[in-house]
Amino acid sequence: xxxxxxFSAGDQARPELAGMRPGSDQGRASQDVRSRxxxxxxxxxxxxxxxxxxxxxxxxxxxxxxxxRMSDQGLSALIVTDPxxxxxxxxxxxxxxxxxxxxxxxxxxxxxxxxxxxxxxGATHTSWLPPExxxxxxxxxxxxxxxxxxxxxxxxxxxxxxxxxxxxxPVGVEMDSHFFSPRAFRALVNGVPEWRLVDxxxxxxxxxxxxxADEVAIMRSAAEVTTAAxxxxxxxxxxxxxxxxxxxxxxxxxxxxxxxAWGDYPAIVPMLPTGESADTPHLxxxxxxxxxxxxVSVELxxxxxxxxxxxxxxxxxxxxxxxxxxxxxxVAEALAAVLEAAAPGTATAELARTWNRILAVAGLEKPxxxxxxxxxxxxxxxxERTISIRTEDEQVLEAGMTFHLICGMWMNGxxxxxxxxxLVTDTGCxxxxxxxxxxxxx
Length: 442
Known about the structure:
Creatine Amidinohydrolase, Chain A, domain 1; Xaa-Pro dipeptidase; alpha/beta; Creatinase_N
């Protein structure tokens, strides 16, 4: 189909053009958008607004924090495409992020969520946004080689009178979002030439780094799911058992959860590097069967309401090799020292140096980072893409921050993984789970 055929399917398939010309004659719809007061979470009579995960005050605080940082960065508006950030600000949660979607956050006034038309109604079921601020783009824009949904969104922003008032200073864009493609960026550049689009530098992600008390409570529930999933993995492992059988047990436990802590889907699938392949992280599974005295690194996460608590342990069915036992002792000592040092006011670089010093005494090193900030996660990652624990990062710890400390030692032909998800408290830190920090001997 060529461009001209887009509007050849009759009047029913034509876009609604009435009032879409920008300017003083734009139409009553734009006047209503400009004069309407900003809606408050919880005030709208929709399914989503009646069943919020967090209080209206918490959502308002998040939006205020975002706008405060926008002001600090000189931004007139922010374009949010990371599904974790959209969820954080609006509560919207669905598997719709494989097609372009965008939350428009102006310096003041209503937020607008643009997404595929078939998903627009679903946003009233999970978000606090009123229906008039949930805008679906036509199906004909989905996965086409010569047009993009954001072509339509750019014009819709004009209809809502958002373009001119956001043109005085730059508009921030999540340049490193997994779901913001070069074509999406090009569509916005071409569709709104008045705007100077600049990198927002993970603006919302940085605000997410400090968790509220309610967020911590959800992560504690996620930790219950983590424990159930690791128990399922260790309870299934055995000589002759296939990796896929262990992965199946983990997935079932991740969905089932434990008690009132029901399980959500993880941003990353279970990972099971085994035997010689354990010298490499991030391997998943096959039908390979476990043999006696062979180590497997089990890395997984429990998830509740999109909040993740990852965990890794190394297990052996039988007797571990001596090299692995040596790693077990050094890693346990180094991790204990890091946990002792982790407290508000400590720089992440100091945690990395603490870890490196103990490894160096044993003649070991870990080139990769020791950990990273965690919280809300959507595929393909459960990290927040902000704070890393390494010597090059001088971020100072604050109470409410949460991290995954991944003490992975990937050697030549073997490997050892031990990890903890931790919460920085007012006086130190605490782990979300309580598995032994040693090789799990089965």
